[in-house]
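[scheduler] slot 2 assigned
[scheduler] job type: sequence-to-structure, two independent chains
[scheduler] chain ordering preserved from manifest
[runner] begin chain α
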Amino acid sequence: MVNETVRRRHSLTYFVVFSIAMALIASGCNTLKGSKAIRPIKEYENMIIGRFDADYVGTANCLSACHEHDRLKQDFDASTMGAQLKQESGLPLVDCESCHGPGSIAIQGLTAEVVKQNSQKGMKTKCDANALINLKLLPAPAQSLICLKCHTANATFNLHNWSASTHSINDVSCFNCHHVHGSPDLKVKPIKTGRMCFECHKATQVEFVLPSHHPLNEGRIFCTDCHDAHGGSANKLLRKETIKETCTQCHPEKRGPFSYEHADVMEDCLTCHSPHGTVNNNLLVAREPFLCLQCHEGHRITSRTGGNTSAESRRAFYSRCTDCHSRIHGTDLPSASGKGRFTQ
């Protein structure tokens, strides 16, 4: 009877603990589902959208009152986004206020008479920029959000990966790479990507000046050939899903499949190669034969089969393995011994 009472108490205790645990889990899930703003919503909206007491007046009214931005207007009109100022373009309308917020307060009081008087005095009429969104003072996520308002849905669809990308997580914004008013060409030219990327990736810049390196400094390849700066599902911002897929875009002869493959090496090129540059030939992470000896036992050669048949062979020094095993990435032909030794 006593045992039965103890058993029931234990059962009740287990039930209570289980119920509390489930309640805590459910509460945690509801918390995770909830969405909380980093800053007060009104403050955040004001920071992104601009003054709530201002009205949109259109680019023509902004620029006619403010001649300080004449050069910027010329560059913008010649750009891709400038073409979208025209209703007949059929593209989503983009103008100054799309990024800088409503401009009625910024040009308040700047009548045609004021502009004319300033012009007669040799002065350029300036708007009150403090009434617009100060893009430079925005935190990096907010700067990117200005661009993502349009660019997640149309021209650059791959930007749906941006928020989870390494760059975004490390507070890199669109403004760090793209200069909207810098020139008519808003996209970064591939040949300029190296210099731009090296502003942050100093260690990688050093690798590209080592004796064996991919010819990025020579202008024959570019960072964007392998990496997508806007993010993606692959590691290291790669454009392809795997290292091998990325490398075989330029090295298709290494793709395979082969009858005789080099085991796990065929799946990950980084087992033997460093992608940006090394002090060893062919971007190898270590010199031959030491690279091969990390996985394979060494052998001296005096016969076609690679066997040791004389005292002289035992005194021989190791040389480069690829002097004999020239098809090291894989081959469809057996060796002279009938085994796959990557010799032909």
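[runner] end chain α
[runner] begin chain β
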Amino acid sequence: MSASQIGLILIIACVVAIVSRRLRLPYSVGLVAAGVSLAALGGALNLVVSPDLIYTVLLPPLIFEAALQLKWRPFRSDLPVTLLLAFPGVVLTAAIIAAGMHFIVGWGWLGAALFGALIAATDPVSVVAAFKDLRVEPRLSLLVESESLLNDGAAAVAFGVLVSVAHGAPIAPTHIAGALGWMVVGGVGVGLLVALAALLVAGRTEDHLVEITLTTIAAYGSFWIAEHFHMSGVLAALAAGLVVGNVGWSGWMGCSISNAGREHLVSFWEYAAFLSNSVVFILIGVHEANQASRLVTPAAALAIGLVLAARMATVYPLCASFLGSRLKVDLRHQHVLVWGGLRGALALALALAVPDEVPEKGAIIVAAFAVVAFSIFAQGLTMPWLINILGLKSNGVGDVKRG
């Protein structure tokens, strides 16, 4: 990416942010539209959408910043719900989508399973931004964001196991279970260790620039180390963000961020997420414009329908298991969880990373971009309307993530 391209992205991001706020439109929709416009005007932003750019450069700050904002106590109180939606939910969603693509479209089982795994994870960026503007009930916002963080990790783990199968790894249950355990436990462990090490050093200084640098090392370092050892980088960055945002604020055993540095730290990571999202969604727009004719296919349309159907078949039954308990999920919240299950950066990065050995790779990329485009424009644009219809604006209680 050249300096001129970076400069153009920054200008576009600023203009779109201002215009979107005044028009009360989701920021991500404006960015994608800007990318489409640029491509239509002659490709002023001639960027290559690569898995390395999205997955290893832009994804870690998005995961880390979202986890940094989550407070442990409210996150822990709803953890049974989010864990059920994120792990069994991802498996069920992926299975429904894979079965549909295999039996209806005719994809091979491996290609269908890879697509099911990569498209099962939700991206809350557009929805959470709308939540902040609309002042949505705190628990709903927490459920949407925490579930998306956990199911990002679950989807990435499932995809990683399937990729190893595509490369010839044995598919015995014991091998798959071992690989899953290594990726999940290893990823979380790496995130915890790297974040704690960074905080131990941060506790010896009150220089906010050093503290920001150390958390940058924690975010990217945990992700890259985990990926290097075939663990889950997504879960590593998630664990690192939770540790920094909770242990780092408490000062446990000298692992702390200075009082003066906290505001700088939060502002830096909000900007990092803003910049990463800007690049990702502009790239989506450029790609959509360049591939518009390929996106309108029966397989892409079926993929969109399957994703929505799978989301409904997952959220409603799993949430029903908490009826009669303190963790009961309001039916209106379930509607938002279903329609607010947008897809984004992770789905695109994993689609582009599908091994060349998979015959359906090209079709998988097309279907993934079609689903992402539909979710951003159709679901993202109608989310504020749905929130108003369901009457889910906050009654004034403080934000549960920051309180």
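[runner] end chain β
[qc] chain β: The chain has 18 helices and no strands.
[scheduler] slot 2 released
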